[in-house]
Amino acid sequence: MVTRKEDFTEHIATESRPFHFVDSGLDNVYLVGIKYFVYSDGRVVAEIPALKQLMQLIAKDLVFCPAALSGSEIRFLRKRLGVKSSEMAGHLRVEFESFSRIENGHNPVSPQIDLLTRMVYCILSGDSELMDHCKAVLQVLRDELKKRQECKILTLKISTDNTWFDLKQAA
User: Does position 136 have pLDDT exceeding 90, yes or no?
Assistant: First the structure.
């Protein structure tokens, strides 16, 4: 099919009128500086250069964002890895059906699933910056777990008058 010039209008996405990038699979991604065409039949077609790099940048922004991940953001990260839902569910140690409900927004994303999803993405993406981030997060978790272990180890002693005391506090 040959498209005539009068069948579409050409636009450049600006900061005041960004292009809503719905094909990313996310509701909140807008692009500036790209060319897009609006056809007379209502179709909108964008010219998006360096698409792979763009998708990696969106994923990295999601991983570093302090806000909790949504189900659609988890799906986005999984798809960037090229991993099947069942495989991702296995990485996260949840049942496939539960994972599917999380991705589709029917179940809430727990803080544990949020953190594990970010960690799995960091590890499997092969991105060195994300790997360093992942190692830093793991170190914080290890330090926190070590503190928890230390406070769970109690050494108690009975005195000659049959009262108990904590050896750490007595020192």
Answer: no
